[in-house]
Design a protein that fits this description.
With about 110 residues, this protein is mostly helical. It is built from three helices and no strands. Helices cover about 80% and strands about 0% of the residues.
Length: about 110
Amino acid sequence: MHKRKVLKFSLLAGILCSSMTTLALADEASAAKVQKLIDAADAARKQAAEVGGEWRDTGKMIKKAKGLLEKGDFVAAAKLANKAAKQGHLGYEQAMSQKELKLPSYLHYE
């Protein structure tokens, strides 16, 4: 009877340890994926900035996403990084579409 309890306890402990290891590895994988999203968002922001199309809040979003990543909130960090990347792409597209914008003659900028 005692051997049976020890065997059950050992089996349960082994299952718990393996699941804890799996969770830790999943967190690391999630952190790596979110870091890639943040890097992609920063690259999109830089591309938009090169053509004068960086939007005001994009950099702030990336900074906040990095903070959320450090705190371990991977879902919120990923959402914010995706939003920042979209703003970077849209800022670039906007700047390129307005590159050769013809202003009306009554508007004079110097």
